Structures are given as C-alpha cells and as structure tokens.
C-alpha cells in the first residue's frame, strides 16, 4: 500500500528515486511524485497515473540533485488526482507517506485554526503541516515531535529546504528499510527498491527515527540512540528484473522449479537423516504443543489450507486455518500449548501482523513463514522460516505460494518426526519423493502453449467455477483467485462435494467448470462431480494424471500432468491454473502485474 523512497548520495537522485519507484510500483500505482532540493530550493513534480506518467511529467525538468524522495500511491484518503499525489509540502518541508493517519481530521482542524491551509483530501498533508508546525530549526526533532502526535500506521520520509543534505525517516507499523551503500543511503518500503545500489540493509523497527546525511546515519528510538544490525541480503538485483519475459507474473510462474528447489535445499540432510528447519530451543517448545492454528490472507491462506491436510496427517495434531482479518476479531482459544503459524510473502500484511501480536499476547508459540528477510512478521514471531522465492513483484502471487507450501510440507514431516509418528526411513522416503517436485513443476510448465489456446477460447466468459476435493480443494480456490484478480472475470472456487448444495444451480451451457482431478483417493468422487456438471450442459476443463484417458469422452478439455504422490499434487496442479489466468488476462490486454484496485502488500487494515 504505497511505496516510498528517499535517496542521498553521489548519484543523480532523481534517476535513483525513479528507478526505485519502478521497483515499488507493485505496492500501488494510481499516482506518483518526487521532491528534490536543487539549488537550495524544494521542487516537487507529481501526477495522477503510473511511474511512466511521472517520467513524462519530468521531461524538460532538468534538475540535478543528490537528495530526493519519491512516492507511488495506492489511494486510501482522497481519489487518485494530481493534487492528492505525494509528496505533500508545507512551508519548505516535503513528505512521502505509506500508511493511514487515524486522527488526521482532529489534527487538520487544529492546524487550520493555527492558520495552515490544505490543498488535498489526504491524511498525509496533515503530516507535512504538523512537521512544519513543530519545526524550530531541526527536521529530525520536528519529525520526532510530530510522530508522537500521529495515531495510526506510518512510514515517512521527509526533506526540508533549510537542510539540503538531510533526509529523515520514521517507521511505525508500515515497513521501512534503510540501504547502506558506499557513501550513499537509500530509504525504501521494500528491499527490491534498494538492491541495485546495495545489499546491506537495516529493516527499521517500530518507533525508529532515522537521520541521514551524505556523511552517515543515526537511528533513534524513543529519543535514545539505537543500535541496528546491518543484514546482507542474498537476492540478486536480476531477480527483480523481467529478464525477457513480458510480465513479472509470467517470469515468476516459470521461476517456480528454481524457487522450490532453493527453498527445500538445506532443510533436510539425507546423510544425517535430520532437519535443519528451526533452532533447537524452538524444537523443544514444539514438542509441548497440542494444537496448531495457521493464519494468513489471500494466497498465503490457501497455502495454509493445503498444509492442514499434511500437518494433521504427519503431526497428528488438530489444525485450524483462519483468515487473519477474521481471526483477529473472534475470541480464538489460544494458549501456551498452541503453535500459531503466520504465513506471509511480504511479511507486512497488517491483519496477519495483528493476528500474530494477539496470539503472542495470549501466550502461543509463534512461527512465521515469510519471503522478505527482516520483515515485520519475520521479526515479531518467535521463530521464522524463510521461503527462498526471491523478490515477488507481480501482484498475483505465484512462486510465493509454491515455496510457502514447500516450507509447510517440510514442517509437517518435521513435526511428524519429532513427535515420533514418522521413523527415519519414512522421512527419508518422503523427502526422496519431495525433491522430485522441482522437476515435476518444470514438466507442468510445458502445458503453457496449450493453455494459451484454451485462454483464447474462453476469455469472453463472464463466470467460472473451480472444483477440487481433498488437497485439490485449496488449489481450486487458488485457481479462482488467480483468474479473478488479474482478468476481472468472476470465478468461484468450491469443494467439489459441496457443488450440489448450491452452486450446481449456476451451471448451464455457458459455464466453464475447471476441475482439478488428479488420480488420488477422491478421484472417483470427482469423476462423479464431472458427470453432474456434464448432465447440466456445463463446459468441463479437467486437469488429471498423465495416462488417465477415461476423462476424454466426459470432458470438453482434458490436460495431463505428470504422476505425483497424491499429497504433493498441489505443487504440480496449481501451475496450469496460474498459466491459464495469466494468458486470459494478457490476451484481454489487461495490466497483469498491476491489476486494478490491488496492491502487493496490504499494510493497512
Ligand atoms: O504478503 P502476504 O502473503 O501476506 O499477502 C497476502 C495476500 O494479500 C496476497 O496473497 C494476495 O491475495 C495476492 N494478491 C494473491 O495473488
């Protein structure tokens, strides 16, 4: 939800900030802007639209500066317009902001009574004016003082005409990372914006106020100087490039064999017959738990739904799966014998973070599964396991999903082993199957051309139904989510067995029904559901196991996927559903990587 950047250093600051904003555009893309201090004067260029519109607006704006801040917006307060775009300025101070100021109306009234006037409908303009009101010669002091009065979530970067060699940043409940380069510093909402300049980063903590000049930086928290460790991230900047693909989503779909392999590498040693997944102290605590709750949003929630089948099978512990925004407002029964698992690609999703904090308060043992190193959820949990997907830029989550499942499957085997349910030889044989997954997903990707043809045939349909049972049920949900979020076609995922309790009424000759039908323990049941759809003239698109020819006569389209152990089929069967959604959206000429109304990291409630 909005991306912010600040740069100070030897390079052309406008160029760096623009480049970094492009890498943050997945966070919001309805307007953008940049502020610099050049020749002692504050200059601001901002516009409704995407970064490319900002680039156009910057043409003929010949400014050389070494200090700049920038913003790409996902509107919360006030429509996407030129005036509402950030940076917002008040009396020589410019501010970019990610988050929501809950008490902005009250502050605005107070500032108006003091003579301040406002141009925009945003909450951010209040921050700029409040900092101006607190300013007595030090931007750093003014930002700290103003921040104490702000209620809500906010990551900000501010510059001031009177202090041309300074950027001040503040973080509270919205992400902010400082990149520490060689004589240059870059402040940003997320790591990919920083990667081309440095891989040395400091994820700032809540309450941190960072004071940056070209000479160095200091972090303060609550008025006290704070020591923050510099982390070295292993992501290569190339991972945040399209490298010849038309869209990031397409590239990320094709990266999955590599991403899954990277994620499972090193988790389990065949030679020693042991896991390297969590610390030994955490392992001891895990032995005490008698219940698991898994909490997440969107695609990450679907990964948790798949994991429930695995965890219950191997750990033999009851598992509850919840959507974070529901979990946090119900009276969940959680105690110190509960393991609460929080799954999040970004590690910044506001509802998931709040659910994590709540579970900690109730005494649960907490575990995060995150992709972004040093993110808020990763830091807040008692223990974190990272997925090694690399930066995921496309708003539609793909490689994050399969790598989350890879971690959760490993966790299930591990729990089975420490609880004595799985013997060493069982773990070894299951891992031997598991490590075939990268190759099997590669084979699934070979369906790409056929799925393009399928997409062209059905892209004008208005509704789709996705069906699956057992571990394929969450895959049906995920397939439907992919289609709706990038192609704007209404799609519903359903457990196939539930169809006759309602959705069957929707089926007619216009309705394509995508059926995830590997030959597994529920295959015969799913075959029955296919018959039910066909009996009502629905169009059936089935995905089944290679060699299973019996669906040919029953379905309109059958696609074959490599044979895979039944519990591991989600890794393979989600691939064609991602590809199908991608091709439908791409052929419809839609903005695949930045679908309307969405943002990659939902850092507001
Ligand atoms: O960063 P997170 O995994 O916490 O994000 C959760 C959801 O916002 C995310 O999975 C969303 O549903 C994706 N757009 C789905 O493709």
Low-confidence stretches: none
Please count the beta strands (DSSP E, at least 2 residues each): 27
Strand content: 15-25%
CATH topology of the largest domain: Glutamine Phosphoribosylpyrophosphate, subunit 1, domain 1
Secondary structure class reads alpha/beta
Instruction: Return Rg in Å.
Output: 25 Å
Average of per-residue pLDDT values: 94
Figure out the total of helices: 19
Q: Give the class-level CATH name of the largest domain.
A: Alpha Beta
Oligomer description? single chain
Provide an overview of this structure:
With 605 residues, the chain is of the alpha/beta class. It folds into 3 domains: 3-239, Aminohydrolase, N-terminal nucleophile (Ntn) domain (Glutamine Phosphoribosylpyrophosphate, subunit 1, domain 1, 4-Layer Sandwich); 242-435, Glucose-6-phosphate isomerase like protein, domain 1 (Rossmann fold, 3-Layer(aba) Sandwich); 445-587, 3-Layer(aba) Sandwich (Rossmann fold), CATH 3.40.50. The protein is built from 19 helices and 27 strands. The strands form 5 sheets. It has an 8-stranded antiparallel sheet, covered by helices on one side. Strands 5-6-7-8-12-13-14 form a 7-stranded antiparallel sheet. β9 (177-180) and β10 form a beta hairpin. α7 runs parallel beside α13 and α9 packs parallel to α13 (399-418). The longest helix has 20 residues, at 399-418. The model has no long low-confidence stretch (mean pLDDT 94). It binds 5-amino-5-deoxy-1-O-phosphono-D-mannitol (M6R). 5-amino-5-deoxy-1-O-phosphono-D-mannitol (M6R) binds at residues 297-300, 344-346, 349, 352, 395-397, 481, 485, 601-602.
């Amino acid at each position: 939800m909005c991306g912010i950047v600040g740069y100070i250093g030897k390079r052309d600051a406008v160029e760096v900030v623009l480049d970094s904003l492009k890498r943050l555009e997945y966070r919001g893309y309805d307007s953008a802007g940049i502020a610099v201090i050049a020749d002692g004067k504050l200059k601001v260029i901002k516009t409704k639209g995407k970064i490319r519109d900002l680039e156009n607006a910057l043409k003929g704006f010949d400014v050389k500066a070494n200090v700049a801040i920038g913003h790409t917006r996902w509107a919360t307060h006030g429509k996407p317009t030129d005036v509402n775009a950030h940076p917002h300025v008040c009396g020589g101070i410019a501010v970019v902001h990610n988050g929501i100021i809950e008490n902005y109306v009250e502050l605005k009234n107070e500032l108006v009574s003091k003579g301040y006037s406002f141009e925009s409908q945003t909450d951010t303009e209040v921050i700029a004016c409040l900092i101006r009101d607190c300013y007595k010669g030090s931007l750093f002091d003014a930002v700290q003082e103003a921040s104490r009065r702000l209620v809500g979530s906010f990551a900000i970067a501010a510059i001031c005409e009177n202090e041309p060699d300074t950027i001040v940043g503040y973080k509270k409940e919205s992400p902010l990372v400082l990149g520490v380069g060689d004589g240059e510093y870059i402040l940003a909402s997320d790591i990919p914006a920083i990667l081309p300049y440095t891989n040395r980063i400091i994820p700032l903590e809540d309450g941190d106020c960072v004071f940056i000049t070209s000479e160095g930086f200091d972090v303060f928290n609550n008025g006290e100087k704070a020591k923050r460790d510099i982390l070295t991230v292993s992501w290569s900047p190339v991972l945040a490039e399209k490298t010849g693909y038309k869209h990031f989503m397409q590239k990320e779909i094709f990266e999955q064999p590599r991403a899954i392999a990277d994620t499972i590498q090193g988790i389990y040693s065949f030679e020693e017959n042991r896991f390297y997944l969590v610390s030994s102290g955490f392992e001891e605590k895990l032995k005490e738990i008698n219940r698991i709750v898994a909490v997440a949003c969107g695609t990450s929630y679907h990964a948790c739904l798949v994991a429930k089948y695995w965890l219950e099978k191997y750990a033999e512990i009851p598992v509850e799966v919840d959507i974070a925004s529901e979990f946090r407002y119900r009276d969940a029964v959680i105690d110190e014998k509960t393991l609460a698992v929080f799954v999040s690609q970004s590690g910044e999703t506001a509802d998931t973070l709040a659910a994590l904090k709540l579970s900690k308060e109730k005494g649960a043992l907490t575990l995060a599964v995150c992709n972004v190193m040093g993110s808020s959820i990763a830091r807040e949990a008692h223990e974190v396991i990272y997925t090694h997907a690399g930066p995921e830029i496309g708003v539609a989550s793909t490689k994050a999903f399969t790598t989350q499942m890879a971690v959760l499957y490993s966790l299930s085997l591990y729990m089975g082993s420490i609880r004595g349910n799985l013997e060493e030889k069982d773990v070894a044989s299951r891992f031997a199957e598991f490590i075939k997954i990268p190759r099997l997903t590669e084979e699934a990707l070979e369906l790409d051309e056929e799925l393009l043809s399928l997409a062209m045939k059905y892209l004008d349909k208005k509704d789709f139904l996705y069906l699956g049972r057992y571990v394929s049920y969450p895959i049906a949900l995920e397939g439907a989510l992919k289609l709706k979020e990038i192609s704007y076609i209404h799609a519903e995922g359903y457990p196939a067995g539930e169809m006759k309790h309602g959705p069957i009424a929707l089926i007619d000759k216009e309705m394509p029904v995508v059926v995830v039908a590997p030959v597994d323990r529920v295959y015969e049941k799913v075959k029955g559901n296919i018959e039910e759809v066909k009996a009502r003239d629905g169009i059936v698109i089935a995905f089944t196991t290679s060699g299973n020819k019996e669906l040919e006569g029953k379905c309109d389209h059958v696609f074959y996927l490599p044979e895979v152990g039944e519990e591991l089929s989600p890794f393979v069967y989600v691939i064609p559903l991602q590809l199908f959604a991608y091709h439908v959206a791409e052929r419809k000429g839609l903005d695949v990587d930045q679908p309307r109304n969405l943002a990659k990291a939902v850092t507001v409630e």
